[in-house]
Amino acid sequence: MSDPNQPQQPGPTSPGPPPPQPPYGQQPPQYGPPQYGAPQYPPPGQPPYGGAPQYPQQPGYPPPGQPYGSPPPPAYPYASWWSRVGAYLLDRIVVPLPGYLLAGLGAFIAFKDSSSVTTTYSGDYYYDSDTELTNVNGVGVAIMVAGILLALALLVWNMVFRQGNTGQTLGKKWLSISVVREADGRPLGPGMALVRWLLLWILGDLCFLNFLWPLWDPRHRCWHDMLVTSVVIKGAVTAPQ
């Protein structure tokens, strides 16, 4: 039995409730005198207290909301099929016309006084003939060859160099259309313009459907346009800045 005059020793007490915790991301309240000079706001570039952390954009990844993969090609004011046909005829007939006329004049001079002699050989079991031109004017032949070379030079200059550097042949310039790279809207350059021209001749000779394909293609392209990734648009090419 304990002595009532003896002082009582404090017994074990149960722990009280834990102090309230601040929301996630917030700093606990500071007690005591304010700390002068201490930052009261998060450092620059950090999210506000309680906000979601921000991470820098990693290189090679698209911005938020943009799907992965290459961006779609830009939308152009595509040239009509009729304007393309008109430019083709102008470039094929009108531009090299001086060469055609010179070649025709040379052919007239070369063969206007010529005559043909046909020799026939026959026997019991065979029959053959040989035709030979006589009195052919050599000057006329030289003029005819010069005209052909002039027409070819005009075609190469127009289709390769002029179109490659400016996006327009003379026929396309007269009808206000241009051929450009689909990726960036710039001229093809002489090298790719030459490839496109050769493909136009090859595919056009193999199948006439190449020239009709722009009628139902959404970007009004022929097959040679698809192979070199070019499009024909309305207007002139904007000069690079």
Automatic annotation (TrEMBL):
GO cellular component, one term: plasma membrane
Keywords assigned: Cell membrane, Membrane, Transmembrane, Transmembrane helix
TM ranges: 93-111, 139-160, 194-216
Membrane topology, record value: Multi-pass membrane protein
Residue stretches of biased makeup (Low complexity): 49-58
Domain of life: Bacteria
Location of this chain's protein in the cell: Cell membrane
Region described as Disordered: 1-69
InterPro entries: Pra-immunoreactive (IPR051791), RDD (IPR010432)
UniProt biased composition (Pro residues): 7-32, 59-69
A Pfam family reported for this protein in Swiss-Prot or TrEMBL: RDD
Domain named RDD: residues: 78-227
The protein's name in its UniProt record: Uncharacterized membrane protein YckC, RDD family
Organism: Rhodococcus maanshanensis
